[in-house]
Amino acid sequence: MVKKIEKPEINLVDLIDQYHSEDECRTLLEELRWPDGVVCPRCSSKSISKIQERYQYDCNSCRYQFSVKAGTIFHDSHLPLWKWFLTIYMMVESKKGVSANQIKRTIGVSYKTAWYLCHRIRKAMTEMRPEHLRGTVEVDETWIGGKHKGPRGRGAKGKTIVVGAVQRGGKVRLEVIEKANRKNLHGFIKEYTAPDTETIVTDEWQAYKGIEDHDTKHKTINHGIKQWVDGDAHTNTIENVWSLLKRSIMGSYHKIDPKHLNSYLDELEWRYNNRENPYLFRDTLKKLIESENLEYQKLIA
User: Fold this and answer.
1) Domain-by-domain residue ranges, the chain?
2) 262-275 pLDDT, tens digit each
3) 136-256, what's its fold?
4) Of 19, 121, 161, 299, which has the maximum CB count within 10 A?
């Protein structure tokens, strides 16, 4: 079996050329799911027979019939795999994201199908056990959405609060919180940063006070007096993440339901944290194979 997944930085021409048929797409998924040969997802037997007239296998041990999509996020999807592949590629390669309306027009499906498809892919992008941030970590919050005009920042009303932490030269963690208070901010920082983090940099907000300990320094920047940099203390990296998030909302999504905001944050995290990964498309496919299906009724509940 020819390994097609070793070429890094696949482009759109490569994608269309290599994966324009159901056979080609299934072959790639099988290589990713079973690199050492097909295994029964029910009993783990390797004694497998292929059902030639269908895209299925028959386990010779437990007689379970299955396909490469069984037990994955692709399960029960009637959408051709090449449309899945194209949507995945567009989502991971679009720095500011891509809207369901754009997916609808590109692959020729209804808006409901495109919206559901995008959310299923976002679910797979969720990092279940993210590694801790280390070294110098910048932390900040931003306010998203809201129907009413009024004060910006921490005085805003009717908006959703997102807190973020980014390791200088490393990864980012983003999460919706209810209030920007000491309990939530300290809890977020302790969950996503290593105990021996060298420095945590924030603005002057009172709720951040006391986050330092014997081996972690806390440096602050006073934005209230227009102080943006003090030596190596600044929050410019996380501010760049907020800029990317807000440009994604204004330019691609236009608006986001607060109950789905964490899913969009997962997507942004995945792209940002893999910004130097030459195998991003392949690794995203792996995530989808490892993820269970997201039912539509559960998504809209």
Assistant:
1) 12-127+277-300, 136-256
2) 999 999 999 999 99
3) Nucleotidyltransferase; domain 5 (3.30.420)
4) 121
